[in-house]
Design a protein that fits this description.
alpha+beta, 2 domains, 4-stranded antiparallel sheet, 25% strand, elongated
Amino acid sequence: MKKALLFALALPIAAGLGFAIGRSTGNSRKQDWSAELFGSGLPGHFTSRGGPLLEDLRTKRFRLAIASCGSPLRMLGYRNLQGHFTLAVFDHAGKPVYAMSNGKASEECRVDYSSFAGRGMLKFVYHTWDCRQVKRAPWKIEVLVFRPEGPPESSVRILLKPAPGDTVQIDRLALQARRSLDSSRKSPGTPESDRAFALAERSLNQLRNIGVGRPAEVITCFKAMKWADGALAEAISGYLAELEEIQRARK
């Protein structure tokens, strides 16, 4: 994958955390604490966003910090955890070079940092809802290798399998999602409303699964769903992000 992809993904997240990436020096507040990162501790807003600091791993060239996003994390092995967390990597000068946040509103993420000290490597496994499976399914593996000079190297592998479908099926599912949402609004708070809304959610998920094999077509379909709001709009936004990343990974 091209290096530009990593920064396209990291920048919006890093900005939300208040981090400067690369050589950005436009914010004096960021400069005030960046020089002290390898001193007594991390900037306050890093841990103030959720739970406690879980890892503060320092090597000769980098520093890795991981904080909980307010819920317990599961340790799956040596330096291997899963859940909701905020993570950042700082260089030897204390400048953040990578940041990501996987809050409780998102699906769980797994990070393996057992090779960070020796090889500067992080391995992320991202999860998503797939109506074809009982449990949350891994949909993407991303491996980052941090180097003393230049941006980290990034490679991505997509794990989601495409569902069969054509233009007719895509149009049918989109119409089914809209009609199900309209039906759920007629008698809110009833079992019938709940079932209709669940059908709308499932229809959108099935669309995303078809989109794994036909991303451009389903992206266009999702973007035309101006009628969606609330939880359905959030689901569509998440599916769009997944399909757009699948597109980029295949270029």
